[in-house]
Amino acid sequence: MAQAVVIGAGPAGLMAAEQLAAAGHSVLVAEAKPSVARKFLMAGKSGLNLTKEEPFDTLIRAYGEAADWLTPMVSAFDSDAVQHWARDLGQPLFTGSTGRVFPEVMKASPLLRAWLARLGNARVEVNTRWRWTGWEGEALKFDTPDGVRSVSTDVTVLALGGASWARLGSDGQWTEALASIGVALAPFEPANSALSVDWSDHMRPHFGAALKSVRWMAGDSESRGEAVISAKGLEGGGLYSLTPALRAGQSLFVDLVPDLDHKTLHARYAAKRSKVTLSQWLRKSLNLSPQKAAIFHEMMKRRGTAQPDQFAVLKKLPILYAGLHPMDEAISTAGGVKRASLDGGLMLTALPGVFCAGEMLDWEAPTGGYLLTACLATGRWAGLAAADWLEKTR
Fold this sequence. Notes:
Elements: E1 2-7, H1 11-22, E2 27-31, H2 38-44, E3 51-52, H3 56-61, H4 67-76, H5 79-88, E4 93-95, E5 100-103, H6 109-121, E6 124-128, E7 131-136, E8 139-144, E9 147-151, E10 153-158, H7 175-179, E11 185-191, E12 195-196, E13 210-211, E14 215-218, E15 221-224, E16 227-229, E17 233-235, H8 237-240, H9 243-247, E18 252-255, H10 262-270, H11 278-284, H12 290-303, E19 317-319, E20 332-337, E21 354-356, H13 370-393
Parallel strand pairs: 1-2, 1-10, 2-6, 10-21
Antiparallel strand pairs: 3-5, 4-5, 7-8, 8-9, 11-20, 12-17, 13-16, 14-15, 14-18, 16-17, 18-19
Helix pairs in contact: 1-13, 4-13
């Protein structure tokens, strides 16, 4: 018997557990993997981007169609609150030139250790290798190293993640248990996904190089940010925010010279000497990097275009790609528990006393601190609502 059970020990689950413990309730956290917050730690290997320091109206727009739904939760635990929380755990922070906020150590592990120590002092019990398999009557059922265990509880918070990086714990297998009791779910789809491109051998020398100072366009969306040319295609923050448009089948274009207008390009091309080749002009007159020139020639060759004013497509070069990478390789996922299945406190209307938080909810956001901010904010919101539920039902 536990007053509160939190299933899933990622950022959302641990934040929910902290709120419940702070309200004076005994809390059991169940994690399917051998250790906690694996995806959080993996994200921290390249520098843990905690949040984005920018005005709230700008920050909330990053959540797209879910912005209205998430507004009360994120406004209650916004960028400033995330930074205060991390500093309170002994982690000095710094803000980069783009507003992204990182721990000075650029790692997730010191922050996680301090957080787990604080939860331990609050008598939060964390059990690993406990895989939730659904309900047995009103009790929660788990596969554990000691066999099947049933746990009765007054309130449950589910923070089970999405459906990418299954090896780290977000495998989406929980959907069957919720669908069986009538919870409305949106199908999972890749978010913040790399693109598959079938490169010719011409591109091989550029694998691992970044396309910088470019503007990407898909449908009504655009982004200024770099992308890396990989053996499989293109990946990077400049593209990730366009994933919703690309999922919908929109064409992708890149502006290789975003700081030059069409008039300037016309003038420079008109001044080109007849003996100067296109490749020479791209390099000498436009200072195009080898990577930009390579992708320009790659895509022009595929189109079979040979018009004399090829420079015009430098502003809107079509990128012929073969689709998104498989969902399990995406940084995050769209889809999950629909808003209509939950009340204002993130409690399932089909199952009173059961709350949901984190990436298992139907929202998405680009990288840049937005993902972690919303996971922490929804975990806090669900934890507070669960504590309030306990008080009201006593």
